[in-house]
Amino acid sequence: MAGAQSTNPEKVYAFLKTQESRGYCDDCIEKRTGVDRHEVNTIASTLALFPREFTRSPQTCPQGCSSRVKLVTASKWPLRAIRPQAASELQCLY
Ligand SMILES: [Zn+2]
Questions:
Q1: How far is the CA of 1 from the centre of ligand 1 (A)?
Q2: Is the pLDDT of residue 79 over 50?
Q3: CA 84–ligand 1 middle distance (angstroms)
Q4: How far is the CA of 67 from the centre of ligand 1 (A)?
Q5: Which of 46-50, 56-60, 63-67, 75-79 has the weakest average pLDDT?
Q6: How many CA atoms lie within 13 A of 55 on its CB side?
């Protein structure tokens, strides 16, 4: 892909936007974008401020990377139901 270099937030944003049907935990986003996990956390938390575009909620990672519940970020077209309480849970965790 020739083109201008993207910033890390752009990489994460573009990655999630092209993965419409699934969510990814921060670890999986790091693996797939090469962006440092801590930075992914910051970026994904920021994306979650735009609930019309992204969801970020505690659940087991759809990628099956772990059985633990993690914060999973997805662009807003996944078919899974969006739990209305996710936002308040997030505020507790963040
Ligand atoms: Zn994962």
A1: 25
A2: no
A3: 22
A4: 9
A5: 75-79
A6: 22
